[in-house]
Amino acid sequence: MIRDRIPQIVAIGFGLFNLVIGLWAFFDPQSFFDELAVFPPYNEHFLHDVGAFQIGIGATLLLGLVWRSDALLTVLAGAGVGAFVHWVAHVRDTGLGGRDSDPYSLGSLAAVVIVAAAWRWRTQR
User: Which residue, 83, 124, 120, is CA-closest to 105?
Assistant: First the structure.
């Protein structure tokens, strides 16, 4: 029984770790840079992107515990979370870098992944 619990404990621990690190980088990039990611030069938008992807990784690990029997739903939903937060970063950081088309293209990609996850969830229930 304990053998079955160890991967779950690791998924919870690493999922929460990634979620917390991602939220920190996304919502307080200067503090994240000062305390943890001291790799000059400071780039606020890049840290928002890092946070978005860490949030996606954490969400995927935690959702894997919810939808244990559906790997495709898990990865689509987790990727959708990361893609959505990445889109938010590009909307929020307009003028800090990237292309003017990024909010539209990244938003469209995020929407496709989220719709695919929702479709999978709906058709598998």
Answer: 83
Range of the domain at 15: 2-124
**CA angle 94–99–104, rounded 5-degree value:** 75
pLDDT tens-digit series, residues 62-108: 999 999 999 999 999 999 999 999 999 999 998 887 788 999 999 99
Angle between helices 44-66 and 2-27 (to 10 degrees): 150
pLDDT of residue 100: 85
Domain count, the chain: 1
68: Cβ–Cβ under 8 A, 6 or more apart, which residues?
A: none
| CA 117/CA 99 separation, integer angstroms | 27
pTM for the complete prediction? 0.91
Say if CB 117 and CB 67 are below 8 A apart: no
